[in-house]
Amino acid sequence: MSERNERGEAGADAAERRGSAAPDVIASALEDEIARGIYPADSRLPTERELCARFGASRATIREAISKLKHDGIVRSRRGSGVYVARPDNSFRMARAAPTPREQAEIFELRMIVETAGAARAALRWDEDDMTAIGEALEAMRRAAGDRAATVDADTTFHLAIARATGNRYFNDFVRLLETSLRTNVALSYSPADWDEEQFQRNYSEHVAILRAIEARDAERARAAMLIHLGTAADDAGLTEVLSNLRP
Amino acid sequence: MSERNERGEAGADAAERRGSAAPDVIASALEDEIARGIYPADSRLPTERELCARFGASRATIREAISKLKHDGIVRSRRGSGVYVARPDNSFRMARAAPTPREQAEIFELRMIVETAGAARAALRWDEDDMTAIGEALEAMRRAAGDRAATVDADTTFHLAIARATGNRYFNDFVRLLETSLRTNVALSYSPADWDEEQFQRNYSEHVAILRAIEARDAERARAAMLIHLGTAADDAGLTEVLSNLRP
DNA sequence: CGCGCCATGTTGTCTGACAACAACTGTGAG
DNA sequence: CTCACAGTTGTTGTCAGACAACATGGCGCG
After folding, report:
1. In a designed cystine with A57, which of A61, B42, B104, B191 is the match (CB 3.0 to 4.6 A)?
2. Are A176 and B93 in contact (CB under 8 A)?
């Protein structure tokens, strides 16, 4: 054990040798390098043996990590040959690291399609529990004023509550997928630098408008309110022009 | 080798001992049993050792299979305790095995939202390659008349080609996810019993209408044509009433 | 009755080996 | 000189055994 700890302090890869998180950590490290272009599409990753040496892990652990990347469609393996970086477009991979403005705009476009339709359906289908959940998320947002991370959380919770109110489980799942993967994107709709009170108030008002429209069971108003909200969020993120220019 | 072959013929699990597909096969078998309720939510799967005995595979292979299920959110493992079936709703899990009519209807609803919007965008954004791909998928569909599996394939390819023509990568990814997971669902829009020539012709005509609208760069017509097509497919699948009654 | 200890069981990781491929190099024949 | 075949080396997929890090259950003592 103490020998293990000494090795743990030996270098920059120390964190990558920690116990049961090792395959996840290794997979993330490799995924990051792939995303940064260190291993471009169709290039070959280091062999398992090399990765064992690099990460100080057993072959089983390395294989576990590679398996995760394979499952995510990021890499493919060929027996006898090696593990290769898959071409993009292999799976539903949301922008994880530093999405480009174009990627952000594409996500917003998808959100606008799905979440406006979701708001309209929620307006027609909500029940007491749904409305309570939406209201609580809005209240949490109000209380979180001044705290950027907390307002982002409440914002996400609000959108998920609406998706749940559609009564369509797949709708709910997909919006959760979008919202979860878009945490960075949602965060980007607020200035990372300083708390912007004016922007928060505007954003909060848009959320109130959405809730009111849904509460009134007015599907078209709900749709419009959601569209306004998402459009404004895209504007705040500086994506107006990119969004209107989608497609090269 | 010959000893291996003899063991391979020893019983009903013979196919499950085949070479490099074993972890996939084992994962699918377990997933099927979970879906059929043999292992309900929160119940514990057999131990790795038991699964090794059952499938005649090494522990590494079993772990590979379990890892796939973990990655899909179907199971969770607790070190020292066992592998447990996860509660539903853990991830974006499309209906895989025998979706209920309600599940099918929910998927159709989501498709109607996403794919109608996709057709409209494809109409505005397609380029020569896109149109060639859409046209080829339609041609493949025509040639596949009489062969149910091949027409389903071509049908899927058609929809994916349209998604690609949106020029939005996330759109493309999501429609692929829907189409991929919905292979059973798309298949259900055709009678499993017998080839239905009249239905095929109608379906094919709807696809022609979609292609024409997109080709003409008429977004609203494309949207309408896709809606008609998906609505008819839902009708053919016997989902009309369920779809209109979504939400308990 | 509650807590602590011990034995047993289970997953996570490590090590070494062999099987099944893939890629490369060298040699011989046409 | 070119091509095909054989052999060698390398890499992933699977197997087997071992130990680490947990979890669970039972028993004994206060």
Report:
1. A61
2. no
Q: In this structure, are residues A134 and A165 in contact, taking their beta carbons and an 8 Å threshold? A: yes
Q: How far apart are CA A214 and CA A225, in angstroms?
A: 9
Residue A159, burial from CB neighbour count under 10 angstroms (0-12, 13-18, 19+): buried
* Shared fold status for A2-85 and A101-244: no
Site of tokens 């939510």:
B41
Annotated domain spans of chain A: 2-85, 101-244
Do β-strands A82-85 and B75-78 pair in parallel, antiparallel, or remain unpaired?
unpaired
Supply the pLDDT for residue B52.
92
Give the tokens for residue B181: 């997971």
With CB atoms and an 8 Å threshold, state whether A247 touches B113.
Answer: no
- Token pair for A235: 């504007």
Measured in angstroms, the CA of B219 and the nearest CA of chain A are apart by 15
Lowest mean pLDDT segment, chosen from A123-137, B165-179, B227-241: B165-179
- Give the E-state strand segments of B2-78 in sequence order: 75-78
Q: Which has the closest alpha carbon to B244: A91, A101, A141, A124?
A: A124
- Provide the CATH number for the domain formed by B2-85 in this structure: 1.10.10.10
A20 contacts in B (CB within 8 Å)? 79
What is the pLDDT at residue A21?
58
Per the prediction, chain A carries an average pLDDT of: 78
What is the ipTM, given to two decimal places?
Answer: 0.56
Percentage of chain A exceeding pLDDT 90: 30
Residues forming beta bridges with residue B83, ordered by sequence position: B77
CATH class of A101-244: mainly alpha
Tokens describing residue A185: 């994107």
Residues in a beta bridge with A78? A82
CB-strand contact B78/D, under 7 Å: yes
C-alpha dihedral, A219 to A224 to A227 to A231, nearest 10° = -170
pLDDT band, residue A204 (cuts 50/70/90): very high
Three-state DSSP class for B195? coil
Cα–Cα dist A116/A18, whole Å: 44
Q: How far is the CA of A56 from the C1' of C14 (A)?
A: 11
